[in-house]
Amino acid sequence: MIKVENLAKRFGGFYAVNNASLEIAKGSITGLIGPNGAGKTTLFNVIAGVHQPSAGRVLLDGEDITGLPPHSLFDRGLLRTFQIAHEFSTMTVRENLMMVPPDQAGERLWDAWFKPALVRSQEAEIRKKADEVIEFLEISHVADELAGNLSGGQKKLLELGRTMMVDAKIVFLDEVGAGVNRTLLNTIGDAILRLNKERGYTFCMIEHDMDFIGRLCDPVIVMAEGTVLAEGSIDEIKANEQVIEAYLGTGLKNKPQVSA
User: Model-level pTM greater than 0.90?
Assistant: First the structure.
């Protein structure tokens, strides 16, 4: 579904992403891991149109989408969430969800004045969709709560819910588990798995929690120093000498041997 070819992003003389190539298969939950400063979030930002690449290209279902702005990618079904949730804090959870669908009749002054029936009808449909999302995510108890009052984990669920308000093809999740307690993290994981299996969502996720990655992701891609270091199952990644060295600064072969 997504193919990244020789992608690079330079800030001054520093390459945050350096000749990175990878593929994300349709219907997969792909994990993206690596030490701090590996270039993971910058890679997400380039794919999602937040940053323009310095070199290389990105393909979505064979179409070159390199450098397209986020709103154009949104229209093509490519969405991303952020490590810090971007909710409308003074609006309720339901209202946050209802804001997502584009080109609503109520946003046009002409329709608001002269087509009130159309506005009411569309708003009712969007509200119904929002309530379905709220039920799916099991957050009905906070549906009318101001989003700014939610916990960190609830805000992450809301961000996930916003991707459900449109026909997403692929969702990039940036540290969806950061700052989330274990109970809510399991709820988020369950929702991701259900979206993948029941609705065919494709995910790519940056995460540092290896247990969470191991539960959800196959394959797992490892980045280090701006490029792709390894790819495989979580067990293969955990046993990879280059990955161990990238994370710990030393490989297994350099570990001191304990004599019997």
Answer: no
How many residues would you count in the chain?
Answer: 260
Residue 178: which residues within 8 A CB-CB, separation 6 or more? 83, 152, 208
What tens digit of pLDDT does each residue of 154-205 get?
999 999 999 999 978 999 999 988 888 888 899 999 999 999 999 999 999 9
- Sign of the C-alpha dihedral computed for residues 9, 14, 20 and 25 taken in this order: negative
CB 58 within 8 A of CB 47: yes
Each as own residue / partner, the long-range contacts of residues 24-28 (CB below 8 Å, 24 or more positions apart, any chain) are 24/170, 24/202, 24/204, 25/1, 25/202, 26/1, 26/202, 27/196, 27/200, 27/202, 28/202, 28/203, 28/218, 28/219
